[in-house]
Design a protein that fits this description.
The protein is mainly beta. The protein folds into two domains: 31 residues, no CATH class; 122 residues, Immunoglobulin-like (Sandwich), CATH 2.60.40. It has two helices and eleven strands; from the N terminus they run ααβββββββββββ. Strands 1, 2, 4, 5, 7 and 8 form a six-stranded antiparallel sheet that branches. Strands 3, 6, 9, 10 and 11 form a five-stranded mixed sheet that branches. A hairpin with a 5-residue loop joins β4 and β5. The radius of gyration is 18 Å and the shape is globular. The chain starts with a helix and ends in a 16-residue tail after the last strand. The N terminus is likely disordered. The structure holds zinc ion. Zinc ion binds next to β10. The site of zinc ion has 4 residues, from β10.
Amino acid sequence: MSKKFLFICAFAAIIPFAACNDNSTSSSQEAHFEADGWALYNTSWEVAYKVWRGSSDDTLRVNAGCLSEHLNIKFLDSDSSIVNPPEDSDHSLSWTVADTTIFNIYQEEAGWGFHLKGIKEGTTSLILKVLHVDHSDVITPEIPIIVEEKLDPEDCPFQDDDEN
Ligand SMILES: [Zn+2]
């Protein structure tokens, strides 16, 4: 039994949602990432979207033809305290956009941050996921996304450093 496995099980004694009772678990399954919520921060470290234990009234907005601010992903634990994203290579950010004709996700590079890229005016939704090899460890509820009127690139509020 590895030290890492022992550590996770010791943790599970305190936090009941981690499961360590399956002796056949593979190394990838031992390292599930657990969180009770998500917090998306803008570049000023203000909360742009927050959900804890499944409920949120927050909405994300972007103009058509524009990128949103860069949003950094953090997680919330059972006390609603901030937790950093997993750092191992088995975990990555994944997402489902309900209608990719309205907006899509734009990333400069793979990691725990992204922009919304507004395509046309409308309302749709986004689900963010922590992908762990072949399954999701943590997902958001459907995040409402509102794409507002189309702007020319020079009028976009956050068209700063990273678009081409
Ligand atoms: Zn997992």
